[in-house]
């Protein structure tokens, strides 16, 4: 069908507009087509552009998305992220294999220590084998693009960082050291203003979150007000392990956006998903996990080879090219006899080597894995917390899940609530300074033998809670408005067991409880929330 705004052919248009969030979008779309009505629908690209235009008008900021000939598009451009917020004033703690002080992070690293070696401070971790992963994840999240003239910057390009190395002397990462690092972050939360922990690491065991030390300390971190983001893993046939199995962490799976600006081409990355041992489903969200611009570790052999390859590729004078190649061939692992080949063959070999090494420039390559999807979500959370520092972990979770967009024609169990949508998430964080959820729900009060259902829904006129404990009757538990956008209902405590429920809004929209940590597939392409009475 044709989008009434851009007149391009799309299989599906967006029709759900309403509430305070969408008023600026509706107005921006009507500026394009005065006769347009929300019932006519619009394609996702027009909606995104309308929201971007609306924000630009509100903030007075110009939006740029220069690519400068690079083949790999920057993540903020691909996610249509709003650049006004850059995570300023927010500290993100990375717990990873190791780090180096990359130029893209210069001046913003508050602390960098080795958890495995008596928390010894260090200015740099020199081993490339342990340093590359943590350096890449932290720069993807919070790099300012210094070595790319500002092109490859993260969404949180002004955020401060605490970097905790958890690889031991034998090159291993243990659950014990991950737990130790999380505890350090909790203990030092106030000193460094740590609001987010990024975990692109994994334990060796797939056991219950109640028995896993990593999961237990994640719960402590969330109770302390820290948002915990965990990578799901890269094996779609694997079992979810800590920290990805933690109900208190926001687990991030992978999206393949094919390095494009066209949402209708999106597909899933081969990330880990499914039901945990404790009976809840992961991931909650998906974010780009392939074609990710990431740094090459500075002053390494790989970085020197990248410099040479691009120096050769950018040498247009054929005679000079041959001379340079003869002098540099051995340094990049080429047979020097290749110098006798036709110059076009040599140039083709250079280009093939650049592509095989996944190089973007002499300082960047493209990488893949949910290890990079998680930092993208962490960077989005930093933007949200800059926009509204009062957000609790429960509020962050609720906004992220509510504003995510489900990927069409993809199994719900592999994507959770869908693809993160930075514009909507940051906008919601910015405008909603009241009535935000402070804790996870439902609240089971064993002392007074009651259950409290809570929902934050600004545009609702009527809300009911219903589930298998009411035989899905929609007349028994009606929530009452308790503030501008809070809805609340109380019912008697149920017998010990596990129950399923949903909210029905305005007698037409079924919602999974976005602040409930536990859910299961409902058999109809969505999720039931789980009510656990112990």
Q: What is this entry, summarized?
A:
This protein is an alpha/beta fold and 534 residues long.
Count of distinct structural domains: 4
CATH class of the largest domain: Alpha Beta
Helix content: 25-40%
Question: What is the overall shape?
Answer: globular
Tell me which oligomeric state these chains represent.
Answer: single chain
Distance between the termini: 51 Å
Largest sheet descriptor: 9 strands, mixed
CATH topology of the largest domain, which one? Rossmann fold
Radius of gyration: 25 Å
Structural class: alpha/beta
What is the residue-mean pLDDT, rounded to a whole number?
A: 89
Count the DSSP helices: 14
**What percentage of amino acids are in beta strands?**
15-25%
Just name the CATH architecture of the largest domain.
3-Layer(aba) Sandwich
Q: Runs with pLDDT <50, length 5+?
A: 58-70
Could you name the CATH homologous superfamily of the largest domain?
A: Peptidase S8/S53 domain
State the total count of DSSP E strands. Answer: 22
């Amino acid at each position: 069908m044709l989008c009434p705004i851009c007149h391009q052919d799309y299989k599906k248009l967006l029709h759900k507009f309403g509430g305070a969030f969408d008023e600026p979008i509706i107005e921006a779309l009507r500026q394009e087509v005065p006769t347009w009505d929300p019932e006519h629908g619009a394609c996702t690209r027009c909606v995104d552009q309308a929201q971007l235009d609306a924000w630009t008008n509100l903030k007075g900021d110009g939006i740029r998305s220069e690519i400068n000939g690079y083949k790999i598009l920057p993540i903020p451009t691909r996610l249509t992220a709003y650049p006004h917020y850059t995570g300023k004033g927010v500290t993100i703690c990375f717990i990873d294999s190791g780090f180096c002080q990359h130029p893209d992070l210069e001046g913003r690293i508050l602390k960098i220590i080795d958890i495995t070696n008596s928390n010894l401070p260090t200015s740099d971790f020199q081993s490339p084998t342990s340093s590359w992963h943590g350096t890449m994840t932290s720069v993807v999240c919070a790099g300012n693009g210094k070595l790319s003239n500002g092109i490859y910057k993260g969404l949180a390009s002004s955020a401060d960082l605490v970097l905790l190395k958890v690889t031991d002397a034998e090159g291993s990462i243990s659950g014990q050291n991950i737990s130790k690092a999380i505890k350090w972050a909790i203990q030092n939360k106030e000193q460094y203003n740590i609001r987010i922990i990024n975990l692109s690491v994994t334990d060796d065991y797939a056991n219950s979150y109640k028995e896993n030390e990593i999961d237990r300390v994640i719960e402590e971190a969330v109770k302390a007000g820290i948002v915990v983001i965990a990578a799901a893993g890269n094996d779609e046939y694997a079992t979810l392990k800590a920290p990805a199995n933690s109900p208190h962490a926001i687990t991030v799976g992978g999206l393949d956006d094919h390095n494009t600006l066209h949402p209708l081409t999106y597909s899933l990355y081969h990330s880990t998903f499914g039901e945990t041992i404790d009976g809840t489903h992961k991931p909650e969200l998906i974010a780009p996990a392939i074609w990710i611009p990431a740094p090459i570790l500075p002053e390494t052999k790989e970085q020197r080879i990248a410099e040479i390859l691009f120096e050769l590729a950018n040498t247009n004078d054929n005679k000079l090219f041959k001379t340079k190649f003869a002098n540099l061939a051995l340094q990049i692992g080429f047979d020097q006899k290749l110098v006798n080949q036709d110059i076009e063959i040599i140039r083709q070999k250079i280009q093939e080597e650049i592509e095989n090494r996944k190089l973007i420039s002499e300082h960047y390559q493209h990488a893949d894995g949910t290890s990079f999807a998680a930092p993208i979500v962490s960077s989005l959370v930093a933007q949200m917390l800059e926009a509204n520092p009062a957000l609790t972990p429960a509020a962050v979770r609720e906004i992220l899940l509510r504003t995510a967009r489900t990927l069409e024609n993809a199994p719900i169990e592999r994507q959770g609530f869908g693809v993160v949508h930075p514009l909507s998430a940051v906008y919601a964080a910015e405008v909603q300074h009241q009535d935000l959820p402070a804790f996870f729900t439902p609240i089971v009060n064993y002392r007074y033998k009651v259950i409290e259902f809570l929902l934050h829904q600004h545009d609702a006129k009527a809300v009911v809670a219903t589930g298998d404990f009411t035989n899905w009757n929609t007349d028994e538990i009606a929530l009452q408005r308790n503030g501008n956008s809070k809805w609340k209902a109380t019912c008697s405590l149920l017998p010990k067991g596990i129950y399923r429920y949903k909210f029905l809004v305005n007698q037409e929209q079924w919602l999974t409880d976005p602040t409930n940590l536990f859910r299961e597939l409902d058999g109809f392409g969505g999720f039931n929330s789980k009510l656990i009475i112990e």
